[in-house]
Specification:
Order of helices and strands of chain A: HHEEHHHHHHHHHHH
Strand content of chain A: under 5%
Largest sheet of chain B: none
Strand order of the largest sheet of chain A: 1-2
CATH topology of the largest domain in chain B: MetI-like fold
CATH class of one domain in chain A: Mainly Alpha
Oligomer: heterodimer
Order of helices and strands of chain B: HHHHHHHHHHHHH
Distance between the termini of chain B: 25 Å
Structural class of chain B: mainly alpha
Strand content of chain B: under 5%
Helix content of chain B: 55-70%
CATH architecture of one domain in chain A: Orthogonal Bundle
CATH superfamily of the largest domain in chain B: MetI-like
Radius of gyration of chain B: 24 Å
Structural class of chain A: mainly alpha
Number of strands of chain A: 2
Number of helices of chain A: 13
Distance between the termini of chain A: 23 Å
Chain lengths: 310, 298
């Protein structure tokens, strides 16, 4: 609609002077700053990652630098168990996080979409962790989980569990502990997005369903859920990509430990490039991560029939 | 605040009979869930949401070594220590600088680009839109090394400029899409009318379109500020000098110490949260509209 309007140049009003003196160049001028910034600081780095992935490149061992062909890639797939470990953990992390965030976010959105006393306050409080950063989330949960004065101490005071337990340094509890910390911040994201979409469901549909005697669950299943479908698909995808890529929380909360049990692929890459200075290998890992992400997204969009028939 | 927006979006049909003065809600039965089905799960979830907030307040306000569950006697010792001894005063200034600069750069650049996307059809438009969407899959964290090299080349390592540029660049795509959707919602005929009245394109935009974009600008600007305020990896990588670091990096330093000073960490966390809380309270009523106009429908 707006595009159709945009094609048509202003129908030559009598006094158009500078107004559309350069209409053909204007759009290019307008996107130039954005395009240049993105070319220089996204496109160029991406290309250089692809380039380095074919090379041995380590600033601390310059004598070995040079063209490596697909050497880095063969090393990833055949000689590097850490790659597979971290990839599996990444998948597990993303799957559990996004699944739980969607479930709780949907439930919360349905609840705060109802009319009740104290709704505005309820919404504000429920949504509040959304704006909390990954690092701050870590700080808060480090306080909660610490073995001396954390929540376990007070639970132990009440006779639940033992004193001196540190969930973050035990390989059997670190996964759920980190999941809960990230859920705390992630659920409001879904709740906000779904709530925004819920408000555009036509009330007539519910009314008609009510007349036909549909139960509230049936109304949800046949009206609300189909309406939310596209929003859910898109937000789960964006969130999955984000959960995969984002290293703030795990980097600061567990540092990938204990014993590497919470190292995601991006965290492994960051360690490889920052600590080991093995830029060539890290670039190859990045390329692989990128391709995996892209393939998964395409398969997901195809399987979920995004934007398809209702 | 949100309620007002919400009822605007989904107006409950006015009842025929004037309501009793009590705030008993004017809703029909079909929409009503039993009260306990609302308050019980909401209450449980609120406990989960609020305990962590209470915990950090507790640790920040109670004296070191105390194990009391109420922050009494209250002390500001942790805040003083963190603000002066641990450099959070400086970090705070740096973060504000980065946040405000990112806000202005993102909004300006995205506004120009968003206008072009909303109002013109030009040859590379489809390709450009595709590039914007694809950039969402590019993890900033994985570009740290090449970005570091670029900034080293530009001699911008250890200058806040590097972080500002990096934050802006990664904010741009979504901001531009969001703003172009807002601009599309402003009828083109309004602008054309202004041209007929003798405005040039820029003036017509400034006088007619810009005021109508307020919700969009607020959404984009505050996202940009909050994101750059919260974000941590770029600052961690590009700023080595303690004088130049930002609040999240300071928090990370406190956390990675051998024996964590919990009181200082809690106080630092609260300092990190204050600007976000302020922005959040300010944008609440635009938040839902902003999301529904842009982010989801893309």
């Amino acid at each position: 609609m707006a595009q159709a309007a945009a094609v048509a140049k202003p129908p030559a009003p009598p006094r158009r002077r500078r107004a559309s003196a350069t209409p053909r160049r204007l759009p290019y001028l307008l996107i130039a700053p954005a395009a240049l910034l993105m070319l220089g600081f996204i496109a160029y780095p991406v290309l250089s990652v692809f380039y380095y992935s074919l090379r041995d490149y380590n600033p601390t061992k310059p004598w070995r630098n040079g063209f490596a062909g697909f050497g880095n890639f063969t090393r990833i797939f055949t000689e590097d168990p850490l790659f597979w470990d971290t990839l599996v953990f990444s998948a597990k992390w993303v799957f559990v996080e996004v699944g739980l965030q969607l479930m709780f976010g949907l439930a919360l959105a349905l609840i705060v979409n109802q009319t009740f006393v104290g709704r505005a306050l309820g919404r504000a409080l429920v949504f509040s962790p959304w704006a909390v950063s990954g690092v701050l989330t870590s700080a808060i949960w480090v306080l909660l989980y610490n073995s001396q004065t954390g929540i376990t101490r007070y639970l132990a005071d009440m006779g639940v569990g033992e004193y001196g337990v540190s969930w973050l340094s035990d390989t059997s509890t670190v996964f759920p502990a980190a999941i809960v910390a990230d859920l705390w911040r992630g659920v409001p994201f879904f709740a906000i997005l779904i709530l925004a979409d819920l408000q555009s469901v036509s009330k007539d549909l519910y009314e008609a369903a009510e007349v036909d005697g549909a139960s509230r669950f049936k109304q949800f299943w046949h009206i609300t859920l189909p309406h939310l479908k596209d929003a859910i698909i898109l937000s789960t995808l964006l969130r999955a990509v984000w959960e995969f890529n984002n290293v703030d929380l795990l980097y600061t909360l567990t540092g990938g430990g204990p014993a590497g049990t919470t190292t995601t692929l991006p965290l492994y890459i960051a360690n490889t490039s920052v600590d080991a200075h093995d830029f060539g290998y890290a670039s190859a890992l990045t390329t692989v991560a990128f391709v995996i992400l892209l393939l998964c997204s395409m398969v997901y969009l195809r399987l979920s029939k995004f934007g398809g028939e209702k | 605040m949100i309620t007002k927006e919400a009822t605007k979006a989904a107006p409950a049909p006015a009842p025929a009979v004037p309501e009793p003065p009590l705030p008993a809600r004017r809703r029909r039965a079909w929409d009503e869930a039993p009260r306990w089905q609302i308050y019980l799960p909401l209450g449980i979830y609120l406990v989960f949401t609020l305990i962590p907030f209470y915990w950090i307040l507790l640790f920040a306000l109670r004296p070191a070594g105390s194990t009391s569950l109420v922050p009494w006697p209250m002390t500001t010792a942790h805040f003083e220590k963190v603000w002066t001894d641990r450099g959070f005063g400086t970090f705070f200034q740096n973060s504000v600088l980065v946040g405000v600069a990112t806000l202005f750069m993102t909004t300006l650049v995205a506004l120009a680009g968003g206008y072009a996307l909303a109002r013109f059809d030009f040859r590379i438009k489809r390709g450009f839109m595709l590039a914007l969407l694809c950039s969402q899959f590019v993890p900033g964290a994985l570009l740290l090394v090449p970005l570091f090299e670029i900034f080293a080349e530009l001699r911008m390592i250890n200058s806040l400029g590097s972080v500002i540029i990096a934050e802006t660049v990664f904010q741009l795509p979504l901001s531009m899409i969001l703003l172009s959707n807002f601009i599309k919602n402003v009828p083109y005929s309004l602008e054309e009318a202004a041209w007929v009245d003798g405005c040039d394109r820029f003036r017509a935009f400034r006088v007619v379109v810009l005021p109508l974009l307020r919700p969009g600008l607020i959404a984009v600007g505050s996202f940009a500020f909050v994101h750059s305020w919260n974000h941590f990896l770029f600052a961690l990588m590009f700023l080595n000098n303690q004088e130049k670091q930002t609040v999240p990096v300071g928090l990370n330093t406190l956390m990675s110490a051998d024996s964590v000073d919990l009181g200082a960490l809690a106080a630092g966390g609260i300092i990190a949260a204050v600007p976000v809380v302020i922005v959040f309270a300010f944008i609440q009523k635009w938040l839902i509209t902003g999301f529904s106009a842009g982010a989801v429908k893309g």
